[in-house]
Amino acid sequence: MSDRKHIYEKMVKNRKIRRRSNCSLTKSTKETDTSTASSKDPTPLDDPADSDIHAALPESQTIGQGQRGFPDRVYLLASVIFQNNHLEKPAAHRLVNYGKDRGIPLPEVSDEEMQCTAYELAFNTFKYQELLENIMVHSRFYLTQPMPDDQMSLAVVILYDFQDRKFLPRKHKGKEEIIQEVRDVENYLLRFKTKLAASLACYRIKHHLLSIECILPESVKMKQERSKRLPLFTWVNTLKSSHDEVRHLLRSVGFSQVRSVEQLEGQTFCQDPHCGDILVFPAQRKAQLYSTKLLSDRKLIIQDKSCSLGPNAVCSVLPEEGDVLMVGCFSALTVSHIASLIAEKHKAHSNNQPKVCVCVSDRTEAQREELQQAVFTMDCKNVKLIPEVFQSLNGFDKRLKKVCVILLTPKCSVSAVSNPVEMILQENGDTNLLQDLSQGSIAQSKLEALVAQQRKDIDHALTFPRVSAVVYTTCSSYREENEEVVTGALEQAKTRSKEEGEPKQAHFRLNQSLFRSADHVDDPKKTEPFFVLEPSEHNNGCFLAVLMREPEPVAKEAPHEVLARANAKGILDRITCNPPSRKQHHGHTNRKTETDHACTSQPNISVSIQSKNQEIKGRNTALCVHQEFTNRQQSSQGKPKDLQLQALKNTKSSSFSSFKQETSTSSKSITPLYIPSSTTSITSLHPTAPFATPVVRPRRAQHKEVLKPVVLVLPPVHFPNVFPSQHVRKRFSPSFSNNRWRSRAQTLLLSRSSCGLSKDTMAKS
Predict the structure, then answer these.
(1) Other C-beta atoms within 10 Å of 51: how many?
(2) Which of 168, 188, 215 is the last residue of a domain?
(3) What is the pLDDT of residue 271?
(4) Which of 649, 562, 557, 559 is nearest to 603 (CA)?
(5) Number of domains observed in the structure of the chain
(6) Is residue 486 part of a domain?
(7) FRET partner for 744 with CA separation of 20 to 30 A, picked from 256, 431, 652, 669?
(8) Alpha helices in 165-278 (DSSP H)
(9) Which pLDDT tens digit goes with each residue over 396-420?
């Protein structure tokens, strides 16, 4: 360091000698005399002595080496940005006073590139504010120049660019716009350029700085170095082209595809490992891409990868007939990206494609028109703008009745981005954060305000009843804006649903990450609920979380509820009992309503054999069949419909002997009545009235001789109306064959009662 100091002192001594020999003392006197300063714009000649100072400054000092200045409009816009957001120190430590004016409206700049340049210039001035103020004070520029305080912001902005181009004068273009205020401040600095350069050199020697970047915080220096190496991320607009067409055109102009970002060099490109529609190029190939007309024709769109992960996640969880609602900070490129992905996914349903609803309450009317025009240029026809504030919207809005997924990209600190100026301007971010980002950290008050708004937005998004997924993404490296916001919102939503008694499907859960991180690429089983992309030389950082609604719980219905629901739909209409005849219905009009309901919904037949004394005096029947099917029906109320149908079919197809074996297992519920009589006959069959208290008699002893009982079981099916009388006489005993007193109705009833008995059974009887 002593050698460098000796070289510097020798250069200053040689400069003084040359000035005396060249009689340039008059020029240096005018340089320090403020009373004779002219407001004109003379272009001073380069001082040959200054070449020694320029040679002493290393090349790493300059960011834009070879840059010969900007238009006047850029300096003016940058000065207003600096005036509104500069770091105001306490009065005791304040070196330069910039006035009290803040919140000055920005001058209009029609060119987007000029606007981006002005913000970059202001951002760099924020980084070196303390250094530039020391130079102005040490060179006595601040004390000797007759400039008002409100022009000092313009002076410090021009000073940064002045030292960036090694104090060389600016080259003016012929038809450039002239702003007199900018020219006056520039002339003042030009007259002091030697003292300003000497003050900068003294500051670097005092603080042992190889370059002015050494005074920056470590995080800011790292981001600044990464921003120079970031590759160029693009996505294919499938509304205007296809992936195959773009790749074919790139190969035709000399590009070749490689496997990974690490292999990008020269005329190469690769496919992004997380998003299949993203192509990555070296940063130096932007001009060559414009020559292919892929960028100008909107077939290939330049946009950072952190802005493309959200649209890809939305497209992955979007159902076939669902719309998307976008909320937060985003550009027309992000809207178009989602629209193109949805159109590609639902290409088969071109007549009914999902819509992209965009909440633009924070945009001016001019910005909304600009957004609509940009989307139209990209051939997006499924975009709809919502001018209302997001907090005033709800799931019952007719415009949002089909919204199933919400993409939430709130304003964040952009702390995980290496080039924050470009990201903020492109994605409609908060420019007030530039001063904090230039120092490597966000003020606690600003961070708390951002977190509060993020929580407010995500809490409201979880209240939409028809929304099945919420995609939350930021470009922040703070846990307060990422994991803590998401987990806090889930807990609050769960608590709210319990208090309001909402069902389980109102809950949300974290879905497994749709993108695998670099650490888990080889092991697909390792998944994390959050996707965090760490900033590096190959990409900016971002955070993404997908909140899915809990699936609707499956309702477990009781068997009788299933049967009732099936009967209401008409499924069991074909399995009903026969309606009673006119004679059978006579005398039974006071039947209980529950018996009528059971007869219409399920088979419920009760058979009794009454004595023949109703027709012929002296003849008594000795057999009565208990309500078998009534008890069987009551015991099978909990069985499903299929089991009941199978039981009925088995009853229909089985004979009496098989039924006797079947009923032996359920003898507890079926007990026949044994009544002695000399002669038995079957007179009529009809549903019996329900018994108040069923009469059950115990079985008689086996050694006692009793008449053989006959148990008749009628299946719940319809039978033919007429059977031949001969067939009936064959089925019963011969004693009935010559009885002419039997009427046709009795014969019919008799035939119905005996149709379910086998021949062996009738022979035994």
Answers:
(1) 13
(2) 215
(3) 94
(4) 649
(5) 3
(6) no
(7) 652
(8) 180-191, 193-207, 218-229, 243-252
(9) 888 999 999 999 999 999 999 999 9
Which stretch of 164-173, 568-577, 689-698 has the lowest confidence by average pLDDT?
A: 689-698
User: Half-sphere exposure of 199 toward its Cβ, with a 13 Å CA cutoff?
Assistant: 20
8 Å CB contact between 419 and 225: no
Which residue has tokens 């910039």? 98
Answer yes or no: do 531 and 568 share one domain. no
Specify the 3-state DSSP secondary structure of 508. Answer: strand
Whole-number CA gyration radius for the chain: 47
Closest to 101 in 3D by CA, of 152, 136, 143: 152
**Whether pLDDT at 526 is above 80:** no
In the predicted model, what is the mean pLDDT of the chain? 74
Domain that holds residue 90: 2-215
Report yes or no on 488 lying in a domain.
Answer: no
Residue 596's alpha-carbon distances to 371, 575, 593, 690, in angstroms, are: 69, 15, 5, 11
Q: Are 628 and 607 in contact (CB under 8 A)?
A: yes
Report in angstroms the alpha-carbon separations of 679 from 357, 623, 707, 709, 763: 88, 10, 9, 12, 16
Residues 6+ away with beta carbon under 8 Å from 309:
274, 275, 473, 515, 531, 533, 542, 544
Q: Are residues 209 and 268 in the same domain?
A: no
For residues 10 and 57, membership in a common domain is answered with yes
Do residues 249 and 292 touch, judged by C-beta distance below 8 A? yes
Buried b (16+ CB within 10 A) or exposed e, 480-518: bbbeebbebbbeebbeebeeeeeeeebbbeebebbbbbe
Which one, of 659, 666, 662, 677, lies nearest residue 715 by Cα? 659
HSE at residue 457, side-chain half, CA atoms within 13 A, is: 28
DSSP string across 567-588: HHTTTTTTS-PPPP-HHHHTT-
Pair 73, 135 in one domain: yes
Distance CA 338, CA 238 (A): 11
* CATH number for 436: 3.40.50.150
**Measured CA distances, 253 to 228, 257, 270, 284, 738 (Å):** 26, 12, 15, 16, 111
Same domain, 326 and 387: yes
Active site residues: 475
On whether residue 557 sits in a domain, the answer given is no
Residue 657 has pLDDT above 70, yes or no: no
Total residues found in the chain within this entry:
765
pLDDT in tens, 212-227: 999 999 999 999 999 9
Cβ atoms 14, 59 nearer than 8 A: no
Which band of pLDDT confidence, cut at 50, 70 and 90, is reported for residue 759? very low
List the end-to-end C-alpha distance of the chain, in Å, as a whole number: 131
556-560 CB contacts, 8 Å cutoff, 24+ apart? 558/638, 559/637, 559/638, 559/639, 559/640, 560/637, 560/638
Whether residue 186 sits in one domain with residue 278: no
Residue with the bigger pLDDT between 98 and 611: it is 98
Residue 179: burial class (beta carbons within 10 Å; 0-12, 13-18, 19+): middle
In this predicted structure, what is the pLDDT of residue 108? 80
> Does the residue 62 lie in any domain?
yes
Please name which of 309, 308, 355 lies closest in space to residue 333, comparing C-alpha atoms. 308
- Please state which of the ranges 401-410, 485-494, 706-715 shows the lowest mean pLDDT: 706-715
pTM over 0.90: no
Assigned token pair, 510: 């974290």
Q: Alpha-carbon dihedral of residues 311, 316, 320, 322, nearest 10 degrees?
A: -50
**Are 589 and 538 in the same domain?**
no
- Alpha-carbon distance 429 to 57, whole Å? 36
| Burial class, 641, CB count within 10 angstroms (exposed 0-12 / middle 13-18 / buried 19+) | middle
Supply 652's token pair.
């229909």
Give, for 356, the enclosing helix (H) or strand (E). Answer: strand 356-359
The 8-class DSSP code of residue 98 comes to -
